[in-house]
Design a protein that fits this description.
It contains 11 helices and 10 strands. The chain has 302 residues and is α/β, with parallel strands linked by helices. The chain is globular and about 55 Å long.
Length: 302
C-alpha cells in the first residue's frame, strides 16, 4: 500500500491512539486504531477520530474549492491490531463514572462516540465513501463503528456482535439505527438482544456485511473494492446521494437513543457493574497476551 506525500496537504493532525495513512494508490485516508491499554474506544481514541475526520473533511473541501477535484475519495476505519478491530466502549471508564454518579461526564463520552459514528455514516459531509476494514473481532461499540460506515469489509472467521446484554444493557451508540437501515428492525433487534457473536460469513449472508474477504485478505479486498468502485463512479455517486437523502440516520436520533443509554447505565446494579469489571479484566488479559505474542516480531523488525 503506497503512502503518498501530497504537496497540497499542509498539516496533519497529531494522533496518540491511532495512526493515519494517505494511500495514493487507493485514493484513501486510512485511520488505524491503536488504543491502549486495551482495544476499546478510549477518550483519546475518540479525540483522534474527531481530529482525523475534521482533517480529511477540510482537506477534501479545500481541494474541491482550489483544484476542482480531490485525491481522497475513500475514508477507511481500520485497526493496528490484526486480531481485534475494536472491543467497544471503555468499560473501565463506565464503571468509574457510574460509581461516582457522574452522568454529565458519561453523557459527554457517549456524545463523542456518536459524533464519530455520525461522521462516518454521513461520509464527512463530503463526496467520499467511508469503509470499515474489519480484520479482527468487533464487539459492542466496535461493531457499531463498523456499521456506521457506508461499506463494511470483513474477513472470514472474524466475530462481530453485541455483548451488552450480559450486563443488562443495550448498545446505545447507533447499533439499532444503523442495523435497522441495513437489515430491518426485526433482525436488528434479534442480533442485539441475543448477545451472541456472529461469524462474518453469517452476517454477510444476512446482508449486514458488504464484502466478505478471505482470512488475511482484508487489504486485498479493500483494493479490489476500490478498483471496482472507480469503474462505477457515477453509480457510486448516485448511491451516496440516495443514502444521504433517503436512508440516513439523523444525528437527533442517535443523540436521543444515547441519552437513554446513559440513563440506563446510571441505573445499573452492583452485580451488573461486576460483570463489566470482569469484562475489563478479560480485555486486560487479552491486551497483555497480545503484547507478549508480538514481542518477537518487534525484536525481529528492529
Amino acid at each position: 500500500m503506497q503512502t503518498a506525500s501530497l504537496t497540497h496537504i499542509t498539516k496533519t493532525p497529531t494522533l496518540q491512539h491511532a495512526e493515519m495513512e494517505i494511500s495514493e494508490s487507493l485514493s484513501a485516508a486510512i485511520l488505524y486504531m491503536q488504543p491502549t491499554p486495551r482495544p476499546c474506544f478510549t477518550p483519546t481514541l475518540l479525540a483522534d477520530i474527531k481530529a482525523f475526520q475534521a482533517y480529511v473533511s477540510n482537506q477534501v473541501a479545500m481541494d474541491l474549492a482550489t483544484r476542482g477535484r480531490c485525491d481522497i475519495k475513500y475514508v477507511v476505519l481500520a485497526s493496528g491490531d490484526a486480531q481485534t478491530f475494536n472491543l467497544g466502549g471503555d468499560l473501565n471508564l463506565f464503571v468509574d463514572l457510574i460509581q461516582r454518579r457522574d452522568r454529565d461526564a458519561l453523557m459527554r463520552y457517549a456524545t463523542d462516540c456518536i459524533d464519530g459514528s455520525y461522521g462516518f455514516s454521513s461520509h464527512l459531509d463530503q463526496p467520499v465513501t467511508s469503509i470499515a476494514l474489519v480484520e479482527g473481532n468487533a464487539q459492542g461499540g466496535g461493531f457499531e463503528a463498523a456499521l456506521s460506515c457506508n461499506v463494511i469489509i470483513a474477513e472470514r472467521g472474524t466475530l462481530l456482535g453485541f455483548p451488552e446484554v450480559l450486563f443488562n444493557m443495550f448498545p446505545g451508540m447507533g447499533a439499532y439505527s444503523y442495523l435497522s437501515r441495513r437489515v430491518g428492525g426485526g433482525l436488528a433487534e434479534r442480533l442485539i438482544y441475543s448477545g451472541d457473536l456472529y461469524e462474518a460469513e453469517t452476517l454477510y449472508n444476512m446482508g449486514v456485511i458488504d464484502v466478505l474477504a478471505e482470512q488475511g485478505g482484508g487489504k486485498k479486498a479493500l483494493a479490489d473494492y476500490v478498483r471496482t468502485a472507480q469503474r462505477r463512479s457515477n453509480a457510486m455517486s448516485l448511491l451516496r446521494h440516495v443514502r444521504t437523502e433517503y436512508n440516513a440516520v439523523p444525528y437527533s436520533e442517535l443523540l436521543e437513543i444515547t441519552s437513554k443509554w446513559v440513563d440506563a447505565a446510571m441505573a445499573l446494579k452492583r452485580a451488573e457493574i461486576g460483570v463489566m469489571q470482569r469484562l475489563v479484566r478479560a480485555q486486560d488479559r487479552r491486551a497483555k497476551q497480545l503484547a507478549v505474542d508480538t514481542q518477537p516480531l518487534l525484536r525481529k523488525a528492529t
